[in-house]
Amino acid sequence: MSPRTNKPHEIVERALALSRADGCVVIADEQSTANLRWAGNALTTNGVTRGRTLTVIATVDGKEGTASGVVSRSAVTPDELEPLVRAAEAAARGAQPAEDARPLVSGVPESPDFTDAPAETSSAVFADFAPALGEAFARARAGGRELYGFANHELVSSYLGTSTGLRLRHDQPNGTLELNAKSPDRTRSAWAGRSTRDFKDVDPAALDAELAVRLGWAERRIALPAGRYETLLPPTAVADLLIYQMWSASGRDAAEGRTVFSKPGGGTRVGDKLTDLPLTLRSDPNAPGLESAPFVLAHSSGGDQSVFDNGLPLTATDWVREGELSNLLTSRHSAGLTGLPVAPGIDNLILDGGEDRSLEEMVANTERGLLLTCLWYIREVDPATLLLTGLTRDGVYLVENGEVSGEVNNFRFNESPVDLLGRAAEAGRTEKTLPREWSDWFTRAAMPALRVPDFNMSSVSQGV
Q: For residue 314, with 0-12 CB atoms within 10 Å meaning exposed, 13-18 middle and 19 or more buried, which class applies?
């Protein structure tokens, strides 16, 4: 193997061969993206990018324990490889023993495609989508609507090699589509988003038709005060709230009494009933259409993530099982501290167990309540209760006697997703959805709509 190689799997091998540390983990992430943007019913930009990030994790054993050093760099050339490895080793030798130190993972079978070239995306991913989008522009123009938005497709091939013999590889496709429709005077706005692996399952015409209906609803404006309202949360809003709940479900923090999952008097709430609905919140790296890495890929340590766990196999995990809290996030280290099972994070989230009922059917069964489009600017107020605040956006609609009667003003809300699960009166059909607030970080979700009888709209917002 030549030291001048530029193939990702050979770069991983070369970095491992250069290592003088007691242990070494190397992750090569090969990224390619393709994107389209549009405004006012016309394409504005498109582009394709390529990139590489190399992460070297060195571990050094000492009398007081094992220290780790992590260095990541982009666009690493073959000549820069040895300095990168030496920098990670120097960082490890200058560090205190790592609290999360564990033996590096071993014994995981090699990925059969480890030596294959990285997967790449290109503008060809939009071959069917782009013409359909152009047709949607024409329909929107004829209907007096302006379409704005973007489509992004990313492919990341991650190559993981370790000094304990692991040679693993995962290809992660990730596509997002966000579409806004606005009235020509910009006083009315509606949003729709989709998550996709390949843009073959998204239909711009259907999205435009959905947005046209919502803009029609908005022609009648109704002012409502702040208060508690029966509210239908669509799947995207449910995803945004429950993703934040998952990010906050640290087993260690719960055991130390710092979160909503802490049991009064000590311990965690694992085993507690969170909702009377038979809902299961789960992650599964092999979930159809939501596939994610089947092993730990940790570029840094923190919370319940540990670089020492790199390569640890991931399996389907229930976080809430039929309404009962069943697992919290743990690394091997935090599992040992808390006595909880090892349950690393997995890059998708699914809530199921609701009725086989669409959001439209739930609207039809509503006497009086609010229908949301999405949430945004979500921030934590109180970690002890997981109280969140945020704003509604791009359409809040009043439902009366089973029909939408008009658009109301936006609101600021104050709610805890854990508390919401406990108060939810109905869950609908689970479907793939794009979390709007977290779409830059987390896109693989499937959620039902939820009916909450007393959602807290704490104040009126002047946003559109």
A: buried
pTM: 0.96
CA nearest neighbour of 340 among 328, 352, 322, 349: 328
User: Is residue 407 within 8 Å of 426, Cβ to Cβ?
Assistant: no
State both tokens at 412.
Answer: 């600021």
User: How many residues does the structure list for the chain?
Assistant: 464
- Give the bridge partners for 66, in sequence order: 61
Q: 418-433 as b/e, with b when 16 or more CB fall inside 10 Å?
A: bbbbebbebbbbbebb
Going by their DSSP bridges, the two strands 324-325 and 349-352 should be labelled as unpaired
In the numeric block, the tokens 């992660």 are attached to: 172
Phi, psi angles (nearest 5°) of residue 15: -65, -40
287 phi, psi to nearest 5 deg: -60, 125
pLDDT, one tens digit per residue, over 290-340 is 999 999 999 999 989 999 999 999 999 999 999 999 999 999 999 999 999
> Residues 6 or more apart from 258 whose CB is under 8 A from it?
383, 384
Which domains does the chain carry? 8-214 (3.30.2290.10), 220-464 (no CATH)
Residue with tokens 């069917």: 128
Helices (H) then strands (E): counts for the chain: 9, 20
Write out the DSSP string of 95-122.
SPPPTT--PPP--PPPPTTTTSPPP---
The answer to whether 297 and 313 have CB atoms below 8 angstroms apart is no
Phi, psi of 129 (to 5 degrees): -70, -45
The position carrying tokens 């009235």 is 183
CA 107: distance to chain centroid? 29
**Span 44-54, pLDDT tens digits:** 999 999 999 99
CA–CA distances in Å: residue 13 to residues 145, 162, 164: 55, 9, 12
Q: Is the pLDDT score of 412 beyond 60? A: yes
Under a CB-based contact definition with an 8 Å cutoff, are residues 402 and 369 in contact?
no
